Amino acid sequence: MKYIFVSLLVIFCACKTTQKSSSTELPGFIKDKIVTFTQNPVTDPPRSIFSYSYNGKTVYFIIAPCCDIPSQLFDDAGNLICHPDGGITGKGDGKCSDFFQTRTDEKLIWKDSRNFGK
What we know:
Blueprint lengths: L1 H17 L9 H12 L8 E7 L2 E6 L9 E4 L4 E3 L16 H4 L1 E8 L7
Antiparallel strand pairs: 1-2, 1-5, 2-3, 3-4
Helix pairs in contact: 1-2
């Protein structure tokens, strides 16, 4: 039963992201990440993906499932820019230390809506 639910959720997520207009179409790598996240166990906090404007470009921020794991910031082509937070120090890799102060235009792209522990 669990596998049926996950399969249906993957189908729902794929359909939901492909129904957007072409001007707001999600990059393929983001769609792939959503599918992967929904095929894995639920995390606490739930996985989520935001888009922002950063240094004049659209970027995608994938929040890590735990405090010591670095979050990821990607450009719109799917290239990893940096790890803004997480890791042992909680400050990421230091390659984009101004991200949290200078980002704008926050949009929640996706959040795992499954219940943790079920």
